[in-house]
Specification:
By secondary structure, the chain is α+β, with helices and mostly antiparallel strands. It has 7 helices and 4 strands; from the N terminus they run βααββαααβαα.
């Protein structure tokens, strides 16, 4: 799989992503109001003053997006959200995912490797974190067998 940066999200793509976020927020955090459609559109099309937003498109070896046959783009949010997941993933599980990666990079690579995911949305606080994320998604994807192994290890008591 190759992962390439996309330059801009369309109005339709922003609206589709809003639907995903609104549904997941209603399911996972029913007490939290979902973001407004305009807020999501602005986040995807108007970068903050001190940030560079990147969206990534995952393609197969032939360069065709994984969901292109169905006309779909499947977006995932990298689990760095507030730094929560990298705080729970220490170096041992990071090394299980891919030796040599930081816990944050291992989290990003895991999301980018999920079957069917064509776009990974993430935010970073500065250029060093962007480089770290870009280095993670530039890694070869994790295989389905490796993802099952990781899930099995992390899900065991």
């Amino acid at each position: 799989m190759q992962v390439n940066p996309l330059q801009r999200a369309s109005v339709a793509e922003a609206a589709a992503w809003h639907q995903v976020l609104a549904a997941s927020t209603a399911h996972d955090l029913p007490e939290v109001p979902p973001p407004a459609p305009g807020q999501i559109h602005a986040q995807l099309t108007q970068p903050a003053l001190d940030s560079r937003r990147l969206a990534w498109l995952a393609t197969g070896a032939d360069g065709v997006p994984a969901a292109a046959g169905a006309g779909l783009r499947v977006m995932a949010s990298a689990p760095l959200h507030g730094g929560e997941l990298p705080g729970m993933v220490d170096q041992e599980p990071a090394d299980l995912i891919r030796p040599g990666l930081t816990p944050a990079q291992a989290c990003v690579l895991s999301v980018a490797s999920c079957p069917g995911v064509t776009d990974v949305l993430l935010a970073a606080s500065g250029a060093p974190h962007w480089r770290e994320a870009a280095d993670a998604v530039a890694q070869p994807s994790l295989t389905a067998a490796k993802l099952r192994e990781i899930t099995g290890v992390l899900a065991s008591p």
